[in-house]
Amino acid sequence: AANNWPLSAGDGLKTVYVRYADTAGNWSDPQAPGASDEIILDTAGVTGSILVNGGNAYANSENITLMLTYSDGSGAGCPLMEFSNNGLDWSGGGACNSPSAWTLTNPSADGARSVSVRYKDAAGNQTIYSDDIILDKTPASTGSIVIQNGVDTTTTASVTLALSCSDALSGCSEMKFNGGGGWSEPAPFATTAAYTLLTSNGTNTVIALFSDIAGNWTTATISDSIIHDNTIATGSLTIAGGSQYAIATSVTLTVSASDANGVTNMKFSNDGSTWSSPASYAT
Description:
- By secondary structure, the chain is mostly beta strands.
- It has strands spanning 12-17, 36-41, 47-52, 58-59, 63-71, 80-84, 100-103, 111-120, 126-135, 142-147, 153-154, 158-166, 172-178, 187-188, 192-196, 202-212, 222-228, 234-239, 253-258, 265-266, 279-280.
- It contains no helices and 21 strands.
- It is rod-shaped, with a radius of gyration of 40 Å.
């Protein structure tokens, strides 16, 4: 027959004894074999935690990693754990282990997600813990690069890049560049950056990539070009068609100049130190 009996308070090993009396009033020995039984009282359940992708605020993939901790003070242990994306539908139970791979639902839509773990100990206690993360699979939406304030040419290989980046969800995080010699190491995003051109006396194109906090890199080509001209134009000057004498202060100058990247301006001097204002080059 079943009899209800209150165990003593406090989790742990409990022993219950029984004595029986016969019609003559003799009571059985409670220490006799079979006159007692033991059971572990475990009312506390498993304490633990769940951390999605190491605690990062954003994920760029629906495939995530769950870092788990669990402890059961009664000694009953954690033989089973289950996961859920909504707190209602739970995965099939598996042995407690960390880390564990998990897949978020609705991977085509960016936004907040919550993942829960339910621990079950050997006594049948259940405890639930949750953690949140934002799914962001969309690259930074816009960006730009302008070399040396947008001028067409530069006489130095050391230039300044003006940069912009915009990301609607997690925000811009990193940038890297390629001017023909391979990608630079990623650096924190900034609106300006120093850069050294690779090609001397020719056109240099610098490509920029921007990453958001979730780790998505831009896929569109974002670039700007500039001519690095480090050679000096060469040319000649002839006064009055090469005449030996001039009869007036106003003379005609015949000029000729060349440069690999073209000649744009010229200026003149009567003493080699004081110069006229630049004028457009013309022969």
